[in-house]
Structures are given as C-alpha cells and as structure tokens.
Automatic annotation (TrEMBL):
Top-level taxon in the UniProt lineage: Bacteria
Coiled-coil ranges (or none): none
UniProt keyword annotation of Ribonucleoprotein present: no
UniProt keyword list: DNA-binding
Keyword Ribosomal protein: no
Protein name, per record: MmcQ/YjbR family DNA-binding protein
GO molecular function term, any single one: DNA binding
Length: 128
C-alpha cells in the first residue's frame, strides 16, 4: 500500500525549497514516503517530516544532512530538531515559514548536497 501524499503542490514554502534544491547540479525531486525528496544520486533533503520521539508532524520542515563541523552548533539552536527516522543518521530539521531566512535555507541545502553528491556535481557547483 503506497504512502498517502502529505504535501500540497501549491504550497509556497515548498515552491521556494524546490527552486533552491533543484538549482543544484544534477538535483532531482522524487516523492518518497508521501513527501517530496531531493536527490543527487542519494537523498540530500526532504520536505516535511516528524520529530523524533514524538507524534508531532512538521509539514513545512526542511530535513537535511548538516555539515559535520556545524552540526553541534545547529543542535544548540532552538529552531532545529532531530527528525524521526533519518535523525538516527545525523539528519536535522528546521521548520520553515514564509518569513524564513532563505539565504540560510540555501546554505543548509548546499551543505547537505555536498555530503552526498558525486564529485562531478560538486565540481559543477563550484563552477557556478
């Protein structure tokens, strides 16, 4: 039985995340577990998810793989949370709103992308 779709294509926050994520070299979008995921071979971001250890759903959250050197600082920031399922693998989440700091979101997506992208995609990113 497939997962139910847990997002709306006309969500303006998702539209902004999509624009940033899909601008990265070779990035693609695929719906998995009912949510949009962004990949470059491997998944580097997901839109929406739950919080680890609770039943709280965060439908406007961005789940991402933080830069290992910045993970501890991000965990200390109240805006970030450990997501269900992927949190065990080092992922973090941040709940987004229309007034989010979109330069920061772009930096988080860039760092996450660099954790999984092949060298050719990272080289293409650096040529931009």
């Amino acid at each position: 039985m497939p997962h139910p779709i847990m997002f709306s294509d006309d969500d303006p926050i998702l539209a902004r995340v999509r624009t940033i994520a899909l601008a990265l070299p070779e990035a693609t979008e695929k719906v998995a577990h009912g949510r949009p995921t962004f990949r470059c071979g491997k998944m580097f971001a997901m839109y929406g998810g739950g919080e680890k250890g609770s039943k709280v759903r965060r439908d406007t959250a961005l789940l991402f793989i933080p830069d290992p050197g910045e993970r501890e600082a991000l965990v200390q920031d109240q805006r970030f949370f450990v997501p269900a399922y992927v949190g065990a693998y080092g992922w973090l989440g941040i709940d987004l709103a229309a007034d989010s700091e979109w330069d920061e979101v772009a930096e988080l997506l860039d760092a996450s992308f660099r954790q999984v992208a092949p060298k050719r995609a990272i080289a293409a990113l650096e040529e931009k």
